[in-house]
Structure prediction request, 771 residues.
Amino acid sequence: MGKKLLFEHINVPGIETYDVYRKQGGYRAVEKALTKMTPDEVMEEVKKSGLRGRGGAGFPTGMKWSFLDRKSNKPRYLVCNADESEPGTFKDRFLMEKIPHILIEGLILSSYALGSNSTYIYIRGEYRWIVGVLEKAIAEAKKAGFLGKNILGKGYDLEIYVHPGAGAYICGEETALIESLEGKRGNPRIKPPFPAVSGLYNCPTVVNNVETLAAVVPILNMGGDEYAKIGIGKSTGTKLISACGNINRPGVYEIDLGLPVDEFLNSDEYCGGIRKGHRLKAVVPGGSSVPIITADLFYKNIKGEARVMSYESLADGGFACGSMLGSGGFIAMDETVCIVRNLWNFTRFYHHESCGQCSPCREGTGWMEKVLHRLEHGHGHMHDIDLLVDVAKKIEGNTICPLGDAAAWPVASAIRHFREEFEYHAKYPDKVKNSRYAHLDDYKKAVELV
Amino acid sequence: MAKVTIDGVEIEVEDGTTILNAARKAGGDIVPPAMCYYSKLKGSGGKCRTCLVKVSAGSAKDPRPMPKLVASCSTPVQDGMVVQNITSPEVLEARKGVVEFLLINHPLDCPICDQAGECHLQDLAFEHGRAKTRYEEERRTFDRIDIGDKIQLHMTRCILCYRCVFTCDQITDKRVHGVLNRGDAAEIGTYIQKAVENDFSGNVIDVCPVGALTDKTFRFKSRVWFVKPMDAQRDCTKCCGKTIVWMYGNEIFRVTARKNKYDEVIDWICNDCRFEKKNVSDWNIEGPTKIERHSVISHNKYQIGTKVNAPKKIGYGNITN
Prediction:
């Protein structure tokens, strides 16, 4: 049984209200930080904890905070990235819906550490109802004196604003998010300058994921050193994983980083195994934009060591035979899933969500989608597979923001690991034309043929 | 001052200069092509990705290479930086990819496009593109938007460099056009038809690297390589009045702003000069323009200093000087 830090009180009835949350020990960290600690000490605790960004990239949070330009006399901003739009990821939604006060508490602590007096929550447009939940929580916290002017009589002012987006995946990228927050078209900015120097309204800004900011609360409560003991190696603490796909128990789980993948997937405490009578075929361990890997490579890395749920272990083997922990959108697929159709679906998403600013992503995502549509609907050719690999290679790394990479990685990895399935689609167009599923027998035969 | 080495050429530039501008200072083959960067326009660049270069050493202090190819138009140089442009196969391969991406939805209607001959995409494709396309699907099309009686918008040809958006934003008072929609459905548009009415709006024609924005008064009149550029001047109350008039015989077919080696406008000109003054008597013609840009329009032109007597009658395809 892993330690529950964020979800410790998740099952307490009425935890979304201030009174119940407070009774469970909520806002203790704020009291502790504001009365006994300086902002630098709060930051030091976060640094000690080894907390890494939970939004996907896994960048150390303490280091990110230390890059913030404190010398300029400009106001500093903290922005909470709640634009969780990655297919397969729904952890932040659950957190904000069920226990909004932990986010508000984390935001107060982080704002205090960074010296931000106005903090924004940029929330995904589709999470319209959560805006109300958060605003209610903010009003309650304000009434209790944890927000507004002169918090706890310590002379620190803070306002939190909730800003709903208009429904664009690209606004989850930090500079596009800032543009959107400023009221402009959500196009990622060209870096440098980085947001830590010139972000929101050209002022120093830190953008962090919901879960990262919420995790500051347990860090302050238990101390950074104690938090760093949980987990494995450089992956410290707990992580929310949103599991979906052909598993028995889909849902959001809080795991200690370092949990063996076998236990996560097959134990009844977590995913509960693949649905009855089927076996695991492929896994996308961290949301649609990370490389897809086969079941064998998921359980064990190329050296034969068992994988664990951590940033390093899942990335072991690089892009050739590893993947990434990403944002924790765990998608398991059994043998009935057609990889080509699945990939087409992912690529369609990236085509739809590309902002259209830089040419490789704008044109390349559409091209890949069209080729995959052709393959899936029985109009493909053998040479299309190599074409896809080549197009993906030319998008990867050549774009302004990581959306290009996110669109290219699934394509490159799916073809690398499941090439015979693509070849089957090109070779037997009639069989795949009206089928949504992978045909096991045909598929096996095709493997022998090609 | 920062010392930077680009393809083995060492050059000293001021701090904060971009790699592209450093390369331009050095000149020659090492200058990366640029489709969206425009030195006159603040904030432009970084979008087309044709100017990607490899930084094999970040700076003298930190000589690690940069992990990805970087856009040379928006990356400032550091002292001791080593950059590879045409000497890196990786860069050339990426550039080839970008050209292919730009062309897959480009209509390739060069035979009927007014920009042909002075089109940057043509030059780029000629230098870096491949002869055959691998794109089998239909090219994207757009509904036609009428943006006024002087400027023609061909959205199908647009490569979304955002130069015209920056131009209207920065040299005119009220921007009326911008980019609508997103992804590969993104388009330049005014939303309100015929809305582009501004004394300096015609400059978007000059900044457009392709034939997406063309001059309606010059439409289908002549190919650019048949008309002769002449430096001309007039007293204009609105702008500098220094222009290039493109003549065919004794007629002025079109008027454009003067441009430098990289086809960037030197001084913006007003719509009066550009669209209204089409008589030789309006202009004080200084002499033939020396076109430094490497393009079709710079070929088969007269030598500087020769006396130009425009022939009275010119047979098609029989242009002699």
In short: Chain A is about 45% helix and 15% strand. Chain A touches chain B through 31 residues (CB under 8 Å). The mean pLDDT of chain A is 91. The radius of gyration of chain A is 23 Å.
